[in-house]
Structures are given as structure tokens and as C-alpha cells.
Amino acid sequence: MSESQSTNSLVIRHATEADVPLLFQMIMELAEYEKLTHEVVGTEALLHDAMFGERKVVEGLLVSWNGQPAGYAMFFHNFSTFLCRPGLYIEDIYVRESMRGHGIGKKIMIYLAQVAKERGCGRMEWSVLDWNEPSIQFYKKIGAVLLDEWTTCRVTGIALDQLANSNL
What we know:
The chain is an alpha+beta fold. The protein has one domain (about 5-165): 3-Layer(aba) Sandwich (Aminopeptidase), CATH 3.40.630.30. About 35% of the residues lie in helices and about 25% in strands. The protein has helices at about 20-35, 45-50, 105-120, 135-140, 155-165; strands at about 5, 10-15, 60-65, 70-80, 85-95, 125. Strand 4 and strand 5 form a beta hairpin. The mean pLDDT is about 95.
């Protein structure tokens, strides 16, 4: 996979340090769409550190359509003990509302699938909110299987602090 991919008016490229403010702005747009702005406690500085600091833990793609920022994707590697191979976990995939309907989301997923294959990943995974029917239908259309038998678990904030400080 080349450093960037361009199709007609669409450009997909790996994010740079200069892209962090725009990425964070679009993260806030996604949080608003998902009605989760109250959960955003991150900052541009924290995002920058996660992407470009000493311990890089996430990668980003920036997508433009006709020269305008259209969306982004954030991803990282996880691991499947059953496959004994890495996986590619998509933390976010977002296309701005005004840019939807041009096949941008599908192109992002194709690009990420190519990255996953090149890196020897056995699978790609992501989560979708159960009320987000347009996204669910899109994911099914590209061949994703919704794993209804799996429930996402999360420990964060005070609960994480309490667990970390528990006696063994």
C-alpha cells in the first residue's frame, strides 16, 4: 500500500503531525453525531502524543474529497490468540455528513483491509452503536458479521482507578 491512495477526487493518506488539529476537530464531530460529547476528555496534545509520541499506539488516515477534508479513520493493532496473528482494530471511521454518498466510507474500509493484509493481520474488527442503522447496513453490505454473542466490556475513569488500586 502506497503512502497515500488517490481515486478521482478522493485522497486517502496517513495522517501527519500537522493533521492532529483537524483530526481532533473531526473526532469532536463524530462525538456529536454519536451523542457522546460528554465523554470526550481527550485533547489535541494527548492525541498527538498517542500518534507521534515516544510510544505510538494509534495510527490515523486523513481523507479528502475534491481537496476538502472529508473524514478520517483511526486504527491500531490487537492480537488474536486463536489465529496467533495480529488484527487491525478500527477505533473510528468517520465521513462528514456533507461528504456522504460518494463511496468514501467504502474506500476507507478497502484501504484499511489492504493495510491489514499487507501487515499479515488475520482480521479487522470495530464496534458500531446499536442505534446506528445506516452504519450497520453499510457494514453488512461490505461483508461484516455482527457478533451478537459478544458483549463489549469497559472499565474507565473511577472504576479503572479503583480496580488498579485493588488488593490482589
